[in-house]
């Protein structure tokens, strides 16, 4: 018995010494034994993160509306465009991931060092203004998910305020919130995949037509179409490219990789992560367009003013359950998108102004809060006071005409620079394909400058009756083609 007591006492003493050491030197012990494994030996799902977050900002209310509008009016025939736009997005996400892992400082500092502070200020201010202005659309998307089931505007407005306060609390509650953000976005991605997949399977789409939609074709579906209908559909297709190929999100990939803590040894993980994010974008967008094609396409023109109209239309096909499931996906897309969209504006402008770019810095969180409050204020004025958001939309689109090609050009330039990237500098194939993507952005900017903005101005000067949620498709994150 004495021997047992002596051994027990020795074990207790060792345990006490171990606890004391852990409290005195917490970094000596891993929080999770898996983190001791070399990164290359971890399962693939433990080597991703930034790409998931980028996917969340791309799949927002604007992309849901645009994908559904194209599917409802052109069936499955434009599915191939998703592959093209995601391919452009993937190449720029990869450039951003490499830049974040390899460069010895933040992108904003690099721009100041290599080109001067005025270019850095221009990039930062463009990104911030675009994010803040389009943030109202993400708030409207959250409100639309609630309005599907709640009739009171005041209650819906209160819920919008509550979710913005929750997002702001999230920014300041954690000293280094990247890991929490990553896990939260994983939940939202899972909800979107599940919700939109259930809707699509329930509609039993024609698989033959679906797969034929991936064969490139420029013909317009439908026999009785006027030239105006054709023009509207082509603009909707440009909108689909614009809501998927979000250059500000690709640029922010560099910041997410740095927050993740990756360096040159993790470049392969950055490439894998970007590919996983691109696959998720493709799956969700294909499901959204295919759902609209299976449930709403008749060959006649279909007008959708807000995402809830899609849910209502699908509800007639397979009941209230389908509407609830779709709105669950809509809410996940809207909330995750408006949180990350505001961070894109806040972190990039703070970095480009030299005020810091890390989650532990105060300035990026303050600027993110300003972006959140700006979007919330415009959305509340729209919901409660029927405020006309046309001036903010026009201003944001005007800035995007310049901002999107500028950001793409800067990212391509930095990631191709030998003195920044060394042996990881972009090769000729990557630069060629990224150059094609830049041309696409310039084409969309031209469409916005020549057609979209004049049309918006005319609509503002000669208004017609509209619902508070009208034009939500134009409020995608940095979309310039809607």
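^ structure tokens above, recovered residues below v
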């Amino acid at each position: 018995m004495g021997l047992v007591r002596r051994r027990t006492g020795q074990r207790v003493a060792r345990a006490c010494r171990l606890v004391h050491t852990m409290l005195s030197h917490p970094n000596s012990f891993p929080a999770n034994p898996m983190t001791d494994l070399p990164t290359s030996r971890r399962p693939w799902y433990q080597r991703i993160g930034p790409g998931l977050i980028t996917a969340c900002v791309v799949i927002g209310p604007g992309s849901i509306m645009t994908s559904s509008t194209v599917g409802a009016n052109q069936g499955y025939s434009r599915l191939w465009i998703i592959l093209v736009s995601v391919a452009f997005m993937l190449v720029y996400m990869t450039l951003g991931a490499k830049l974040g892992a390899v460069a010895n400082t933040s992108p904003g500092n690099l721009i100041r060092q290599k080109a001067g502070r005025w270019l850095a200020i221009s990039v930062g201010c463009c990104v911030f203004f675009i994010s803040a202005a389009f943030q109202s659309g993400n708030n409207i998307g959250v409100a639309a998910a609630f309005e599907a089931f709640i009739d009171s505007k005041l209650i819906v407005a209160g819920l919008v305020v509550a979710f913005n306060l929750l997002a702001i609390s999230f920014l300041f509650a954690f000293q280094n919130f990247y890991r929490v953000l990553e896990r939260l976005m994983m939940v939202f991605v899972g909800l979107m995949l599940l919700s939109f997949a259930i809707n699509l399977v329930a509609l039993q789409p024609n698989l033959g037509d679906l797969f034929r939609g991936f064969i490139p074709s420029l013909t317009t579906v439908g026999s009785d179409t006027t030239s105006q209908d054709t023009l509207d559909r082509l603009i909707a297709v440009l909108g689909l490219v614009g809501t998927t190929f979000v250059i500000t999100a690709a640029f922010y990939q560099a910041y997410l990789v740095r927050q993740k803590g990756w360096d040159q040894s993790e470049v392969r993980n950055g490439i894998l992560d970007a590919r996983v994010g691109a696959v998720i974008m493709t799956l969700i967008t294909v499901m959204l367009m295919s759902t609209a094609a299976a449930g709403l396409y008749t060959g006649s023109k279909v007008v959708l003013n807000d995402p809830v109209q899609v849910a209502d239309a699908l509800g007639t096909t397979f009941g209230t359950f389908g509407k609830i499931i779709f709105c669950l996906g809509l809410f996940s897309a809207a909330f995750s998108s408006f949180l990350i969209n505001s961070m894109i504006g806040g972190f990039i402008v703070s970095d480009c102004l030299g005020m810091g770019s890390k989650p532990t810095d105060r300035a990026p969180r303050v600027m993110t809060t300003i972006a959140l409050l700006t979007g919330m204020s415009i959305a509340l004025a729209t919901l409660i006071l029927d405020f006309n958001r046309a001036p903010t939309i026009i201003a944001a689109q005007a800035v995007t005409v310049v901002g999107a090609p500028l950001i793409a050009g800067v990212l391509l330039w930095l990631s191709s620079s030998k003195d920044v990237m060394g042996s990881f500098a972009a090769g000729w194939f990557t630069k060629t394909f990224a150059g094609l993507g830049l041309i696409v952005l310039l084409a969309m900017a031209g469409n916005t400058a020549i057609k979209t903005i004049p049309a918006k101005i005319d609509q503002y000067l000669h208004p017609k009756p509209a619902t508070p949620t009208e034009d939500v498709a134009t409020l995608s994150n940095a979309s310039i083609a809607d």
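The mean pLDDT is 79.
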